[in-house]
Amino acid sequence: NGLSSLLSVCTSLRYLNLQRCYLQNCTLKSIDNVSKGLEKLEVLNISQNNLGDNAVAKWLSAINRNQIKSLNLSRVSKNEKRLYFYRIIHDFLIKSSKKLEFLDISHNELDLEEYIQELMSCTSIVDEINVGSNMNIVNLPSLQYHCVKCIC
Fold it and tell me: One of this protein's Pfam families, by short name (predicted)?
């Protein structure tokens, strides 16, 4: 597929913007195939793809937690199990003591107040976090996203 081909030759990719790239058509196996190209990734935007929780978990396991700085997961959950989506995010955050600069998990119907509060308390792990529409989405102008348009 196109994404696997791209990442097999771009092994030192640092910025990847796949917003609205129809990633819901990717199989979980194809996400495994791209993990080699994600080792040095610092910024990942897979927002607005309606991936589902299992695919989100696969993407997060494919990236290097100690390398990533910014993660946009807005509108990726299909609301299969809200608690499972929360667990995926929480477990990813606590994998490392290295801070994320930015995390956006808004618009995933994660309205379980106690879980949102626990994620918000991860300030030692995340500098800025957006969990819902009541918070402003923070733009990081210092980060330049390189958009890759593809359908895998």
Answer: LRR_6
